[in-house]
Amino acid sequence: MKKSQIIIVILFTSSLVLGACSNEEGNTNDEANILNESNNIDEKDDDMSLGIGDTGISNSNLGKAEITLDSAEMAEEDDLQEDGKYAPLIVVHLKVKNIGDESFDPEEVLSSGVLVGSEEEYGSKWMYYEVSEEWKNTLNPDEETSGIIVFSHAIEDEYELIFGDIRSGSNNAESSNKISFEFSNEEVN
């Protein structure tokens, strides 16, 4: 009798230990799956070192868009019919095409944009001026629009236009891949 009690206790203890180990492994696998899922969110394809005329794909919580840098030019505030003191301005001509399934405001997709000079760690955010073409308010799937964004920026040898970068401070940037266009002062018309 005593022998059967010992065997029952051993079997009971073994089943508890095996059950706990099995549950731990299940949790580990669940945790690994959660980590993999969160890493997949963060692993978005960045489009880096693009140039004038190139197209990058923005994939953010707003939707999926193609952004093309058509050209860049230097201007003065008088050229843009704005009052105020002189500041060198870089006018960037862009095209945005909605390649996703949801409508969005193109200005929101571009809201993370910063222009960084060759001698800077942080760039300047763009300002919207009521000039030239205006952006559409809503861009439906398969539609595109063109417009400008303007940066008040010192003259540099090299520039990098960045969208979706965390340092831009945009609410959208954390959930977006990074797109960067590089161009030189010589390429600025």
Automatic annotation (TrEMBL):
Taxonomically, the superkingdom here is Bacteria
User: What range(s) does the DUF4352 domain occupy?
Assistant: 61-168
* InterPro entries in the cross-refs: DUF4352 (IPR029051), Immunoprotect_excell_Ig-like (IPR029050)
What Gene3D superfamilies does the database record attribute to this sequence?
Answer: 2.60.40.1240
Q: Which UniProt keywords apply?
A: Signal
Keyword Signal applies: yes
Please list which residues make up the signal peptide.
1-19
What's the protein called, per UniProt?
DUF4352 domain-containing protein
Q: Which organism is it from?
A: Oceanobacillus jeddahense
